[in-house]
Write a structure and sequence with these properties.
Number of helices: 12
CATH superfamily: Aldolase class I
Structural class: alpha/beta
Order of helices and strands: EHEHEHEHEHHEHEHEHHHH
Shape: globular
CATH class: Alpha Beta
Radius of gyration: 18 Å
CATH architecture: Alpha-Beta Barrel
Oligomer: single chain
Strand content: 5-15%
CATH topology: TIM Barrel
Length: 297
C-alpha cells in the first residue's frame, strides 16, 4: 500500500446507535466497533451519512468521536465525517476530530448550497489548511444535489497531497473510471455504493465504504480482499450472496433498513431521529427476511 493511502479494503460506514430514550447508546457503539474489528474490517467511518451526521448535536459529536477513537484503540484507522455545507463548521468539526485522535476526515460535497466546482475546491483547500489530518472526499450527489466532477477530484488530488482518496457514490462508472485513469500514485478510490464495490475494485479501485458491512463485516471484507487479490470466483460468489441485502439497505432511506436489521439481531436498539423514522410495516419483514441468514454477531 502506498504511503499516501490510508487503507485498502473495506471501511464500514458505522450507524450511530441511540437508546430508546433517544440518547447516544455508547455501549452499543462500543460493541458494534468490536464486532467490526473482530471480523477483520479495514477502517471505521464514523458520523457519515449512515451515522446520521446531521442529527447529532455538537456535544454528542464530540462524545461519539472520543468513544470511537478510544474503542478502536489504534487497531484500524478511524475516519470522522466532518464535512458540512458550511466551510467554517467543517473546519471546526475537523479540528475537533484531529484533537480527539482521528486518523482521517471524510469531507462530503456541500449539500443545499450547490457550489460551483471552484467553490468546492476552495472549501476542501480551506479545511486541509486548517486541520492536520488526511482527508477523503465524499461524492454523493443523490444526497447533496451536488456532484463534484472527475476533473475536480483530480485537480484536488494533484494540488492538495493531504487529500488521500475519494469515496465515490455518484453511481457513474464513467466518472469513477475517469478518476481511476487519471489519479496520482497512492490516491485511493473507494466505492460509495455496496453494489458497485466489486466492479469498482476490479477496475482498479481500492475497496469500499460500506453500509451493509455493519451487519456482515466478515463477508464483505472477504469479498473485497478476494477482489484485491484477483480471486474473482470467490469475490463474485460473495457479491451475489449479499446482493439482495445490499439492495435491501436502500428499500427505504439509509440507515433505516440497516438499523432495523441490526436491531432485529440484538446488536443495537434501532432508534432513529426525525425526520427519519422506523422502517414501515410494509418493508420490515422483506428486509429482515433477507438479513437474518447473513447477520454476523
Amino acid at each position: 500500500m502506498n504511503a499516501r493511502m490510508l487503507f485498502r479494503g473495506t471501511g464500514t460506514a458505522l450507524v450511530t446507535p441511540f437508546t430508546p430514550d433517544d440518547k447516544v447508546d455508547e455501549k452499543a457503539l462500543r460493541r458494534l466497533i468490536d464486532i467490526q474489528i473482530g471480523a477483520g474490517i479495514d477502517a471505521l467511518i464514523v458520523l457519515g451519512t449512515t451515522g446520521e451526521n446531521p442529527n447529532v448535536s455538537d456535544d454528542e459529536r464530540r462524545h461519539i468521536v472520543d468513544v470511537a477513537v478510544e474503542q478502536a484503540a489504534g487497531r484500524v484507522p478511524v475516519v470522522i465525517g466532518t464535512g458540512n455545507n458550511s466551510t467554517r463548521a467543517s473546519i471546526e468539526y475537523s479540528r475537533q476530530a484531529v484533537a480527539a485522535g482521528a486518523d482521517a476526515l471524510l469531507v462530503v460535497g456541500p449539500y443545499y448550497n450547490k457550489p460551483m466546482q471552484s467553490g468546492f475546491y476552495r472549501h476542501v483547500a480551506e479545511i486541509a489548511s486548517a486541520a492536520d489530518a488526511p482527508i477523503i472526499l465524499y461524492n454523493v450527489p443523490g444526497r447533496t444535489s451536488f456532484n463534484f466532477t472527475a476533473e475536480t477530484t483530480l485537480r484536488i488530488a494533484a494540488d492538495i497531497p493531504q487529500v488521500v482518496g475519494v469515496k465515490e457514490a455518484s453511481a457513474s462508472i464513467a466518472q469513477i473510471s475517469d478518476v481511476l485513469a487519471g489519479r496520482p500514485d497512492g490516491f485511493a478510490v473507494y466505492s460509495g455504493d455496496d453494489e458497485f464495490a466489486l466492479p469498482v475494485t476490479l477496475l482498479g479501485g481500492d475497496g469500499v465504504v460500506s453500509v451493509v458491512s455493519n451487519a456482515m463485516p466478515g463477508r464483505f471484507t472477504r469479498m473485497i480482499a478476494h477482489a484485491l487479490d484477483g480471486n474473482l470466483a470467490d469475490a463474485r460468489r460473495l457479491h451475489f450472496e449479499m446482493l439482495e441485502a445490499m439492495r435491501a439497505c436502500f428499500r427505504e432511506t439509509n440507515p433505516i433498513p440497516i438499523k432495523a436489521a441490526l436491531a432485529d439481531a440484538g446488536i443495537i436498539s434501532g432508534g432513529l431521529r426525525l425526520p427519519l423514522e422506523e422502517i414501515s410495516d410494509a418493508n420490515r419483514e422483506r428486509v429482515l427476511e433477507v438479513f437474518r441468514p447473513l447477520v454476523e454477531k
